[in-house]
């Protein structure tokens, strides 16, 4: 195995070091394709030219053989007339060479010898006198020419004609003897020049050469245009890839019909680029959030630590002065408050870290949402006895139809609305402690940032929405996501099918928040009023923890504007199982919902 690996590495190294291979690798794809096309044309043209030459040559030879065989007797019987013909004319393909030999193959005479212009004589090269050297009778054969040049100038065309090969046939001839009948007298060798064949093949060769050159030039131009046009999408992909390599991830490959290879490649590349861009964007956002998180965490931890350190130093400086005990109690009290705030902050940070890692939450439990909402209402009432708290359900009102109403007014947009009544008993699969923490954090924000006498509504219902294959946990906590869910509820109401969702809504009528602030409310360490948050004990992590807990349940949490002013928190969690009936023995779940018309009212001072 080691030897084989060494051989493979050596072969790969040799290949890369081969100058020819490196030169070929450096040639562009379009040049390679054009070259391949030209090579194929040359090979095809050469094969066709060779086939045509062979076909024409075989045809002329066959025609000459037929002429020799069919006219042999006529030539022998008319030798005297042929001898008186004008032998000084150029061979036209019908002038013969004739030689007689006796029964022992000795040359008797050569009565017909064609002559060319310029006293050039061309005869076939035959076996010596007394031998036929294996020549078969009646079987034509080809032989070279023997040229004899007389005195005077000789033209090149005459020499060319004279050098042409001959086609010769050997025949036995007889004479009729009155006494003994037919008697073999000897052998006649009759030949015809193949000048016509050579001339025809020369013309064909020139024709193919001229046509071949013209075809190659034309094919080169057309192949270059066709290859460039065909490779144009790949060149665009190359330019796009170069821009992407320079850092512009927003570039996309020009689209093409997906039934083609380039179109399929473009679609796949664009899909891949979209995912890469999304991954880079998410990585950048994650990095930015991590940097901001570390910075904010350091800042938030620095404040109580500085207070602890400062009051400790102050106690050391003043412990020898009169009244040191009273000042020590004040310093210890401040140190205790700072440490308590720091402990709460660390606890929140640990909770977020656990949920980010997928730990600290158990989705295999049962959570009674009506009990959680009722308990949270009691907690808020204990914090703000003067606050009016109403319990009930949640329903969708309004329409998304763009048509005008009968009175000419625009229709009311669809929205979730609180309806006072009895809390619906709803049990889902989830972590009750984390879900309780979600509502508790929302209630804590209401206690900290709204007036004590502003009313609060808390609703809980089950709504059916047509959201196939949609994970609410991956949707952003924005008004757009909430609107999409409301539209899905309307679709499900018209079709009668869909998935059931538990919808919790907490509505306050406080000062509310600006739209740009609502978009940041779920970011870590974000507080609309940092000074007031510190006064009330807020860390800026409550809404981030609530969002992480809801997303862990594959749900959605949104903060929207309350009609008339205020802030509305909506929590939507999918129901995996059928809702269970309320447990009549659970006092905590029914303490605030014993009467359908009953609500938590403010206690009198």
From TrEMBL:
Name of one Pfam family that matches: HisKA
Low complexity: bias regions: 585-594
EC numbers, comma separated: 2.7.13.3
Domain Histidine kinase: 296-577
Main location: membrane
Annotated keywords: Kinase, Membrane, Phosphoprotein, Transferase, Transmembrane, Transmembrane helix, Two-component regulatory system
Residue ranges, annotated region (Disordered): 578-605
Key word rRNA processing present: no
Domain of life: Bacteria
Annotated compartments: Cell membrane
InterPro entries: HAMP_dom, HATPase_C_sf, HATPase_dom, His_kinase_dom, HisK_dim/P_dom, HisK_dim/P_sf, Sig_transdc_His_kin-like_C, TCS_sensor_his_kinase
The UniProt record lists the keyword Phosphoprotein: yes
A Gene Ontology term for the protein's cellular component: plasma membrane
Limits of the HAMP domain: 228-281
Catalysed reactions, as listed in the record: ATP + protein L-histidine = ADP + protein N-phospho-L-histidine
GO molecular function: phosphorelay sensor kinase activity
Transmembrane segments: 33-52, 207-227
Enzyme class: transferase
PANTHER family assigned to the protein according to its UniProt record, in alphabetical order: SENSOR HISTIDINE KINASE TRCS, SENSOR HISTIDINE KINASE YKOH
Protein name: histidine kinase
Organism of origin: Bifidobacterium callimiconis
């Amino acid at each position: 195995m080691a030897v084989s690996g060494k051989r493979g590495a050596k072969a790969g190294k040799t290949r890369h070091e081969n100058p020819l291979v490196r030169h070929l690798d450096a040639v562009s794809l379009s040049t390679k394709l054009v070259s391949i096309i030209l090579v194929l044309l040359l090979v095809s043209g050469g094969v066709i030219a060779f086939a045509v030459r062979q076909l024409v040559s075989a045809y002329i030879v066959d025609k000459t053989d037929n002429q020799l065989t069919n006219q042999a007797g006529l030539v022998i019987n008319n030798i005297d007339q042929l001898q008186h013909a004008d032998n000084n004319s150029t061979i036209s393909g019908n002038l013969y060479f004739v030689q007689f030999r006796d029964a022992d193959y000795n040359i008797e005479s050569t009565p017909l010898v064609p002559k060319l212009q310029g006293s050039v004589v061309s005869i076939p090269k035959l076996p010596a006198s007394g031998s036929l050297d294996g020549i078969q009778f009646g079987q034509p054969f080809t032989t070279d020419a023997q040229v004899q040049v007389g005195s005077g100038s000789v033209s090149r065309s005459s020499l060319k004609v004279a050098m042409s090969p001959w086609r010769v046939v050997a025949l036995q001839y007889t004479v009729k003897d009155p006494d003994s009948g037919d008697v073999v007298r000897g052998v006649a060798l009759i030949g015809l020049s193949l000048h016509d064949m050579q001339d025809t093949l020369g013309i064909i060769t020139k024709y193919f050469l001229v046509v071949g050159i013209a075809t190659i030039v034309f094919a080169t131009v057309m192949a270059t245009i066709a290859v460039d046009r065909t490779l144009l999408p790949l060149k665009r992909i190359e330019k796009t890839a170069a821009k992407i390599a320079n850092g512009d991830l927003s570039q996309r490959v020009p689209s093409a019909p997906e039934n083609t290879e380039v179109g399929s490649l473009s679609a796949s590349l664009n899909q891949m680029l979209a995912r890469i861009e999304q991954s880079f964007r998410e990585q950048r956002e994650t990095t930015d959030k991590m940097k901001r998180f570390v910075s904010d965490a350091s800042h938030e931890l620095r404040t109580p630590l500085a207070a602890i350190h400062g009051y400790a130093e102050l106690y050391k400086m003043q412990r020898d002065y009169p009244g040191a005990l009273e000042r020590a109690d004040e310093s210890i009290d401040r140190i205790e408050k700072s440490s308590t705030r720091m402990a709460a902050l660390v606890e929140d940070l640990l909770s977020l870290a656990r949920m980010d890692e997928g730990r600290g939450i158990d989705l295999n439990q049962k959570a009674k949402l009506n009990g959680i909402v009722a308990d949270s209402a009691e907690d808020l009432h204990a914090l703000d006895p003067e606050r009016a708290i109403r319990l009930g359900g949640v329903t969708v009102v309004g329409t998304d139809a763009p048509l005008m109403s009968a009175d000419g007014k625009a229709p009311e947009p669809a929205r979730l609305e609180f309806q006072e009544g009895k809390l619906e008993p709803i049990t889902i699969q989830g972590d009750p402690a984390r879900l309780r923490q979600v509502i508790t954090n929302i209630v804590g924000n209401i206690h900290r940032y709204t007036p004590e006498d502003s009313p609060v509504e808390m609703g809980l219902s089950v709504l059916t929405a047509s959201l196939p294959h949609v994970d609410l946990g991956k949707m952003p906590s924005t008004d757009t996501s909430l609107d999409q869910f409301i539209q899905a509820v309307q679709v499900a109401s018209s079709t009668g099918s869909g998935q059931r969702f538990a919808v919790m809504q907490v509505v306050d009528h406080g000062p509310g928040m600006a739209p740009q602030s609502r978009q940041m409310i779920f970011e870590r360490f974000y507080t609309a009023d940092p000074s007031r948050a510190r006064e009330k004990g807020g860390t800026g992590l409550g809404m981030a923890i609530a969002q992480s807990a809801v997303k862990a349940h594959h749900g959605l949490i949104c903060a929207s504007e309350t009609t008339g002013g205020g802030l509305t928190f909506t929590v939507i969690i999918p129901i995996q199982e059928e809702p269970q009936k309320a447990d009549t023995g659970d006092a905590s779940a029914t303490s605030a919902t014993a009467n359908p018309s009953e609500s938590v009212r403010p206690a009198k001072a």
